[in-house]
Amino acid sequence: SGHDVVAVVRTASARSPECLHIATTEVIGDVSDVELMNAVMPGLESVVHLAAIPAPTGHTARELLTANSITTMTVLEAAATHGVKSVVMASSISILGMAWCEQLMSPLYLPVDEAHPLRPTEGYGLSKECDEASARMATRRWGLPILAMRFPFTGTSEMIDARRRDPEQALVVAKELWAYLEVRDAARAVELAVVAMTEGGLGGYSVLNVIADDVLLDQPLRELMREWHPNVPFAADDHIFGGAYDVAEARELIGFDAEYLLHDRI
């Protein structure tokens, strides 16, 4: 979209016709490296922080907290030190505690909004709660505008469709309340957030559900809830055909609505 992008990645991006656009500048390194972050930040207008271990499988809670939460604080402190105007960072619906719980955990109500209680049951969800707490502190301490995006399962259309068709994923997607986001929607949401903070005057700390207003399966949400989470009250009787998460804040603050949906709302 015309932005100059400095990407910090652990290994060089593949130069292939199938690859997404390569950044203007690519720095090879680890964002947990304090010296590297202080070297990269000067002159940057905004930071998009997506680096993390993305799931708890195969990692201890300590490893997840170290890799995710300490790294997030490294990024935020370096950004504040060097006058970055805004940070967009990845949070996750795993912060709610349902996605990686060993048993089926139900939400307390529907639709699930950003004020829903956080009940992490493992180290990854806890690391995201720590990330959001760190962001709130950074805004209070340094006046750094930060927007945390709670992403669901995010991938290409092909990945989402494969997940939808896999019967072995039935319990997994029920834990996540059948949420998904196409990667192009995720990228557009990030850009909208950056623009809203650097040009639109959005300041302070915000957290948003950035999720397709849809469900992964072909049944309506109310039917799926009756089957898997029968005791959960709906906050509104008319919330039947969309997704299980309230996405009104994302629409209001940054003008985001997911476009790549499995089901036509009309």
Task: Describe this structure in a few short sentences.
By secondary structure, the chain is of the alpha/beta class. The protein is 35% helix and 13% strand.
Kindly list the characteristics that best describe this protein:
8 helices; alpha/beta; globular; 266 residues; single chain; two-stranded parallel sheet; four-stranded parallel β-sheet
Structure overview:
This protein is an alpha/beta fold and 266 residues long. The protein contains 8 helices and 8 strands; from the N terminus they run E-E-H-E-H-E-H-E-E-H-H-E-H-E-H-H. The strands form 3 sheets. Strands 3-4-5-8 form a 4-stranded parallel beta sheet, sandwiched between helices. A two-stranded parallel sheet has the order 1-2. A two-stranded parallel sheet has the order 6-7. Strand 4 (86-92), helix 3 (123-142) and strand 5 form a beta-alpha-beta unit. Helix 2 (61-81) runs parallel beside helix 3. The longest helix is centred in the N-terminal third of the chain and has 21 residues, at 61-81. The chain is globular. The mean pLDDT is 94.
